[in-house]
Design goal:
Layout (H helix, E strand, L loop, with lengths): L3 E7 L4 H10 L6 E8 L5 H8 L3 E4 L8 H14 L4 E4 L8 H7 L3 E5 L11 H8 L3 E8 L9 E8 L6 H24 L6
Parallel strand pairs: 1-2, 1-4, 2-3, 4-5
Antiparallel strand pairs: 5-6, 6-7
Helix pairs in contact: 1-6
Bound molecules: 5-O-phosphono-beta-D-ribofuranosylamine.
5-O-phosphono-beta-D-ribofuranosylamine binds next to helix 1 and strand 5.
């Protein structure tokens, strides 16, 4: 088995990144994590990745005159790692069409809602405000429309009496860490295809 080479894009904590790194430690996992790229130099996830001996890089968009040049620089880093697939894991920048098209079918994201419900930010608070009975998370292909690409896996959790955005987020996060490695497995083995 040739393991697929996967890069992870983060902006912060990196708990989903850590779940992917952990899964990829299994010898029979079909992907290896070859690099972690952050748009924030202070992202705590960079330290976690480095502690696992994984290559890291950070690029601040503010240092580039245009988004296109920033994203070209990201692509150069990803290509230097011979990246097959890209996982967005709490990467808090909207990506431009050129970058998305370049990686289309090879780039996935985890989103903390049952898409197509609650695209965008602040999903847990919005779900609670609507009084929904169920909430969850989605791993989906990244396409040019924000949070619009086809889903690979979803997981549901109940909304419980007394939930706050924080308690609900914590319940969803457990499921994120379960389905993201599973979705990457499906992608890397060709069982999930755009
Ligand atoms: C997660 O809730 C993920 O669904 C969303 O951003 C958050 C990132 O958390 N896209 P972490 O950095 O993986 O801990």
């Amino acid at each position: 088995m040739t393991r697929k080479r996967v890069a992870i894009l983060i902006s912060g904590r990196g708990s989903n990144m850590a779940a992917l790194i952990e899964a990829a430690r299994a010898p029979d996992y079909p992907a290896e994590i070859v690099g972690v790229l952050s748009n924030k130099a202070a992202a705590p996830g960079l330290g976690t990745a480095a502690a696992h001996g994984i290559a890291t890089a950070s690029l601040a968009q503010s240092r580039f005159p245009t988004r296109e040049l920033f994203e070209d620089a990201m692509t150069r880093v990803l290509e230097s790692w011979e990246t097959d697939y890209v996982c967005l894991a709490g990467f808090m920048r909207i990506l431009g069409a050129d970058f998305v098209n370049r990686w289309m079918g090879r780039m996935i994201n985890i989103h903390p809602s049952l898409l197509p419900a609650y695209r965008g930010l602040d999903t847990h608070r919005r779900a609670l405000a609507d009084g929904v009975a169920e909430h969850g998370c989605t791993v989906h292909f990244v396409t040019p429309g924000l949070d619009e690409g086809p889903a690979i896996l979803q997981a549901r959790v109940p909304v419980l009496p007394g939930d706050t955005p924080e308690t609900l987020a914590a319940r969803v996060l457990v499921e994120e860490h379960r389905i993201y490695p599973e979705a990457l497995r499906l992608l890397a083995t060709g069982q999930a295809r755009l």
